[in-house]
Structure formats: C-alpha cells, structure tokens
Amino acid sequence: MPRSPALVSALPPHHALAAGRMARCEGGPRPDQPVIHDHSGIALYLSGTTRLWMGLDYTLTRGDLVLIPEGMPHCTRDASRGELIGVMLCTACMRAPWSEPLRDALQAVRDGGAAARRLDEPALAAVEALAAALEDELAHPRPGRDLMIDGLMSQLVAWIVRAAPRAADPDGAEAPCPPLVADALAYIERHAPRAISLSDVARAVHRSPAHLAAQMKQHTGRTVVEWITHSRMALARQLLLSSEEGVESIAARLGFASPSHFHRTFRRLHQLSPGAWRAAHRGGSTLEL
What we know:
The chain is α+β, with helices and mostly antiparallel strands.
C-alpha cells in the first residue's frame, strides 16, 4: 500500500458531530492510495461485505463496528452492495464525559490494536437505534438537544467499550500508523487549546523536530503545523458558534500571539473573518462535545 495518503473530509467544518446512513455500491472505485480523515469516525456495517485495509485487512459484514482515528491511513479494497451507518466527530472538540473512553479506544487503534469490533444482533439493534436517534437530533434541533446528544453518545461509547475486538484477516498485514505518528497526533488533539509548536510536539514524543516532521508528512500527508492549525481552528469554530465569547478572548484562549494573527489564520482557511464566519453560521447546527 502506498504511503502518500489523500485527505478526505466528511464532517462539515462548522459541525463537531455528524451521523447518517451510507450506501456501499457494488463495483465502486478502488483507490490507488490510502486516505485519511481530519476527523475520527465510527462505522457500523448493516449489510454487504467490505474489505477494509487499515494497517491490517478486515473483511467486514453485518454487525461489525469499525473505529477510524483522525489521521489514520485506510483504504476500502473491495465492497459489495450494502449499507452502513457512519458517525463522524471532531476529535479535538471532544470534551464531554464520554470523550476519554472514546479517545482511548481510538488511540488503541492507532497503536496497532484491532480496529473492528463485533456486535451480536441485540447489540447491533441497540447501536443502530442510537445512531438513528443521533442523526435525528442533529437534523432537528429541539430544546434539550445537547443533553440528548450527550446521552446518546454516552450509550454509543459504552457499547463500543463492551464490544469484543474482532481479529483481522490472516493475510495482508502491513505496518499500522507508526507509534511516533500516533503519539504525536494524540498529543496535538489533547493540547490543541495551548500555544504548541512543532518543537513542543517533538519534545513530547522524544524525537527531533526534523525527524517528526518527515514521519508525519510521510504517513498522514499533512505537516505537524497543519495538524496543529486544524485542531485549533476546529476549537475556534465551536467557540464562535456555541459561546458569546469575543474574538479577542478566543484568540487568547487558543494561544495565538495576537488577535490579528488569529484573524489572518482564520481568514486564510475560511475566506471570512472570525466575526463574519460566526454571523454566517450562527443559525446552523452547533454542539458542545
């Protein structure tokens, strides 16, 4: 499998969480290279058969649940016609009580643990119902929405923790995301609100900045600075949407050297100033994770 992944994002930039059913089409395209997401994902397979590579090969059928960490290269090698439910999350935005067990489960996959878990029929029915309720809450904001979503996500994560890990296929193993890259991504996710740099991340993983930079670019297709900026901007968007905090205060909270630096970075990535972006998206879907 080639080592130059392409970035594919399925999470709208002003959302911290999304859920929905997805179709798997027989004879679909087979990528020549792995992809990465700038968000984490949970995929519950309802029908059909899919061969997924994520360091190891997995043949997935009804009842398989797969954890896909942010920045983890993976590739669908083959898929028959079928359906799955996907839950996409902004990993840096996760702050709710269920965040730590989910973050630990995702990190275990990065570290080479099993990406797939097996649900029996009662558990599958429960998780499918939770995902459907989550999709409905996200699509139709109502009073108590954040409390309801927090409860649904808590139950979903509990089922993930309870589910038995599923063995990979005996053949087709390749090196998973290297521990160095996995540790660097985890450090960035947990420390994004601070003013961290390439040197800080390199120091945390006990490698030189040059070595870390090369490894991160090779295995994720993004630089360390790009991952840091991505996490900080994700947090900035959630603060702009879910709080009344001023732009200058948000810039200081996220460790930017000055409000003007925050403005420049935000405008470069979103084509709008933070204030204009807040006004344009304030009526949309917001969520505290």
